[in-house]
Every structure is written in structure tokens, then in C-alpha cells.
Design a protein that fits this description.
alpha/beta; TIM Barrel; nine-stranded mixed sheet; binds zinc ion
């Protein structure tokens, strides 16, 4: 061979001298990772090679890029394609369409993403609520046989277009109006095509146990893997119920029903103000809600239910626990609590504010109503993966939940290093190979030759989330390098302009 050819770099990228944590849960070892094009071609002991670019990983941990299977990233991905909040915590793939709500049609959206890519890879679930709204509207009634057929066909077509499975938000409208049998019927179609079922369950407070039973039934009768998404127990009176929910999951698995869990590591949730409002009041959408709220009798009934919700479930008995992230009708409320707005502990008065703000178009809220004990117990469960339930915020805008900026770094810093709840290798497994296997992303989630080159390098001694409630717009710290499909997007802690993210397609995909 000619000397020139012999000296030509054999590798495009060489990540050298790091602690390799392969994503499968194996103990770390010192080694190198070699990349050609978009593919990992070498993972093993350190050696001297010629490479176009070398990323120094000495003293750092090298892992597969993380996969966030519960993302609301479509809210920001086109405005903020750098997705810096994700990249700075090692997330290289996001799966959108959770909680029963997804873009539609699936194929069209994935094509759109392919044309305007971001830093991260992007996949979709099909939302059951989206399908139901399309076919039945936001009505509280059963589907007719014709409607059910129509919905089945939409699921089938969406799986062919690349959805990873079916998501539900049985807590939300119109998911809340869906009988279990109807969910089973649609889940079956997704399952036949290799899909997974994920659910924001009907209830995550006093009726958590019942809700887990329903999810297990859907997995069992739908014959597909089922996942409790963002598993948590809301409301002080219900804390501790994760003992029972985890036992139910274990019992189901023992008899062959494939159940798993994902979780974000915080003691507060975030969702619409509508979470406080009874479902009957929300039927058929905002216009109908306002008509009902105009009737003194209906308004009084709404407020009664809201007071109970504030005392027992999402408010957990303290108006300070409900904090506004952003409100359509009043931008100045961001960061303030319902107690601040009410000016006292008068729950009746607070309920009136809730109805009034909902009339103005609603709010995004943060609900501090989860116990650390339940968070830790759920995290220790081996079948729990890490997922953010966050999105891609516009930096500095509103006061959103910190999970968008911090989830993965927080698990690595706070729960691995500081609290020693799980090991580093196990945490990485829950962020990479566990979600990849669960969603059948067969070419990502492990550091192995042949896998797509999504790689994260961070300092396990310093990695930490900086985003806080009330002051969320702060990137996580500790990540040095991030590579997506063989292209660096973060090097030595600096973001690069590359946008190598790809649309990724589920197991039923037919080109
Ligand atoms: Zn949710």
C-alpha cells in the first residue's frame, strides 16, 4: 500500500481513554470508541490509531446517547433545533406523541422533520386522544362499531408510517371518555405491528392502584408491551402507594405480561390547569366549558370538585403547591403560586380563580404533590427507565418545570453520585438500552460496533442539573462531548451548529 494511503485516517472520530459504560449495565472499563460515518466500528481497549478527529475522554465516562421516550419536544424542535437543553444532558433521541396526543398524520410529520432536522433524532408515538378526537370529537360517549373500525385503520396506517406504538392520556379529554375495551381494541392493532403501549393513566393520585390494574389489563388483553409513563403518586394522602403499584407490576410480569415504567426525578409534576377541573366540565372543548361556567349552578359544582382536587390530589392540601408556569390570560402569573394569587388559604376563592383562568384559555402549572420516598422507590425498580416528560423550551421564556433541562443530569448527579440510589452503570442502562429495547430502536442505545454513533461523554464527578423550580432556564453541567449519527454537536462543552438528527421509524414502518 502506498504510504499516503497508509497514513490516511482510518477513523472519522476516535473517542479516547474514557470509562466505557456500554449501556447494557456492565461495569465500566477504560477504552476507546471508534466511529466511521454514522456508525460505531470499534469499542474496546485503548489503542493508537489515525483519526480525522480525536475527542479526549480521559477521566470521563463514555456512554450511548440517551433516549428520552416521553418528550413534548415538538413544541420547540422547529424553533430551537439545537435542542441545547437535551444535548447538554446527553439526550440524542426523543420520542414524541405521549399522553394520548401526537402530531397527525405521523408520516407527514416525520417527513417534515427530516427536511428541517435538529440535533437530536426524533420518533413518534400515535396518540389515542388525537385519533379519538378526529373520529368522535371531544364527546363523552362510546364509539360506534363503524367509528371503532375507522380508529383501528388509523392506528394501522400510522404504524405503517413509522409510529412506535400507541400512547394514551386517559386522564385528559378525550382519553378520559374512552372505555378500557376501546383502548384494548386499538392497542391490539399497534401490538400486532410490533408497537408498544404507553399511558398517562386515568389517575395518578388516590386511584393509582386501580389505574395500574387497568394498564396491566390493556397490556394483557392487547397482547403488547405496556408502560406506565411518568409513574408517580400525587397527593399526600396517597403517598406510599408505589409499594402496591410496583407489586402489581411484578405480579403481572411473573405471569408473562410485559409491563415497564418510566419516570422523571422530581417531586412535582407539570400539566395544564385543566387537571384541576372535572372532566364533565371540559367535554366538547373550550367553548362548551365557557358556556357551562356561565351557569351559576354548574360553576358551583365545578368549584366543589376543584376544592377537593386542591385539598386531596394535585394541590395536596396547600395552595402554595400549585405554581403557574405560564397563563394564556395573564403572563405575569408565571412563577407565582395559587396561594400568591388568592392572597389567603381560602380554597373556595382559589377555585374561583381556577375557573376564571380556565375561561381565559388556561395555564401550564407545576404541582408539588409527590413524595421523595415514592420517587426513590420507583427509581430502584429495575424496569424503570428515565424519561423527562419535558420539551424544548425557548430559553428564558416563562417558568416551566425544570425537567426539560435537568432530568438526565439530575439522575446522574443527585441520585447516582450523591444519594447512591442506583449505580452509574444502571442509570445509564435506564437511559439507553432499556428504552431502546422497549421501543424496538434496534440500532441505538448500546456502545457496540454496528450501532448508530450516538455517544455522550461526561464527567461523572461533576455532572449535575442546575435548573430549579422558579429559576428553570439553566443548562445541566458536566457533559463534554456529544455525537449524533457520527457528527459532533457538543465538543469540549461547546455547542456546534451541526444538525445531524434524523427521523426514526417504528417497527411497523413500510417505506
Ligand atoms: Zn403525561
Amino acid at each position: 500500500m502506498a504510504p499516503l494511503a497508509a497514513q490516511a485516517p482510518q477513523y472519522d472520530i476516535w473517542i479516547s481513554g474514557g470509562r466505557i459504560v456500554d449501556g447494557a449495565g456492565n461495569p465500566w472499563y477504560i477504552g476507546d470508541v471508534g466511529i466511521i460515518g454514522d456508525t460505531i466500528v470499534y469499542v474496546g481497549p485503548s489503542k493508537k490509531v489515525a483519526a480525522r478527529q480525536t475527542l479526549d475522554a480521559r477521566g470521563k465516562t463514555v456512554t450511548p446517547g440517551f433516549i428520552d421516550t416521553h418528550s413534548h419536544g415538538r413544541r420547540g424542535i422547529f424553533e430551537v433545533p439545537s435542542a441545547e437543553n437535551q444535548i447538554r444532558q446527553g439526550v440524542t433521541t426523543i420520542i414524541e406523541g405521549p399522553d394520548g396526543s401526537s402530531p397527525y398524520p405521523v408520516g407527514e410529520y416525520l417527513t417534515r422533520f427530516s427536511k428541517v432536522p435538529a440535533t437530536t433524532n426524533f420518533g413518534l408515538m400515535l396518540g389515542q386522544g388525537t385519533v379519538r378526537e378526529k373520529v368522535i370529537g371531544l364527546k363523552d360517549r362510546k364509539a360506534t362499531p363503524e367509528e371503532l373500525d375507522k380508529m383501528r385503520e388509523i392506528v394501522r396506517q400510522s404504524m405503517r408510517e413509522g409510529a412506535f406504538g400507541l400512547s394514551t392520556g386517559l386522564f385528559y379529554v378525550p382519553g378520559a371518555f374512552t372505555p378500557t375495551d376501546e383502548v384494548v381494541a386499538l392497542a391490539k392493532v399497534a401490538g400486532e405491528m410490533g408497537g408498544v403501549y404507553t399511558s398517562h393513566m386515568r389517575d395518578e393520585a388516590a386511584k393509582s392502584v386501580e389505574s395500574v390494574k387497568e394498564l396491566i389489563r390493556i397490556g394483557e388483553e392487547g397482547h403488547l408491551p405496556a408502560q406506565i409513563t411518568h409513574h408517580k403518586i400525587m397527593g399526600g394522602k396517597s403517598w406510599g402507594q408505589s409499594v402496591d403499584t410496583l407489586r402489581l407490576v411484578e405480579e403481572a410480569r411473573a405471569r408473562g405480561v410485559d409491563i415497564s415504567i418510566d419516570q422523571y426525578p422530581y417531586t412535582a409534576s407539570s400539566t395544564g390547569l385543566a387537571a384541576l377541573v372535572p372532566k364533565w366540565a371540559l367535554e366538547s372543548g373550550q367553548k362548551s366549558f365557557k358556556e357551562r361556567a356561565a351557569s351559576p349552578e354548574a360553576r358551583a359544582r365545578m368549584k366543589q370538585d376543584i376544592v377537593v382536587n386542591l385539598k386531596v390530589d394535585r394541590g395536596s392540601g396547600d395552595l402554595r403547591n400549585v405554581v403557574f408556569a405560564s397563563c394564556v390570560g395573564d403572563r405575569t402569573l408565571a412563577g407565582k403560586s395559587l396561594r400568591d394569587l388568592t392572597g389567603s388559604d381560602d380554597f373556595e376563592k382559589a377555585a374561583e380563580h381556577v375557573v376564571r383562568l380556565q375561561e381565559l384559555g388556561g395555564c401550564s402549572c407545576i404541582y408539588h404533590a409527590i413524595s421523595e420516598e415514592d420517587v426513590v422507590r420507583i427509581m430502584r425498580y429495575p424496569g424503570t427507565m428515565i424519561a423527562s416528560d419535558g420539551g424544548i423550551p425557548i430559553f428564558g421564556e416563562d417558568v416551566p418545570h425544570p425537567r426539560s433541562y435537568g432530568t438526565f443530569a439530575r439522575v446522574l448527579g443527585r441520585y447516582v453520585r450523591e444519594k447512591k440510589v442506583i449505580t452509574l452503570e444502571d442509570a445509564v442502562r435506564r437511559m439507553s438500552s432499556l428504552p431502546a429495547g422497549r421501543f424496538r430502536i434496534m440500532d441505538r442505545g448500546l456502545l457496540r460496533p454496528g450501532m448508530k454513533a450516538d455517544v455522550a461523554v461526561f464527567d461523572a464527578n461533576t455532572v449535575i442539573d442546575k435548573s430549579e423550580f422558579g429559576n428553570p432556564h439553566q443548562y445541566a453541567e458536566g457533559f463534554a462531548h456529544v455525537v449524533v449519527n457520527g457528527t459532533p454537536v457538543l465538543v469540549d462543552g461547546k455547542m456546534l451548529p451541526a444538525r445531524p438528527g434524523r427521523a426514526i421509524y417504528g417497527p411497523g414502518y413500510q417505506k
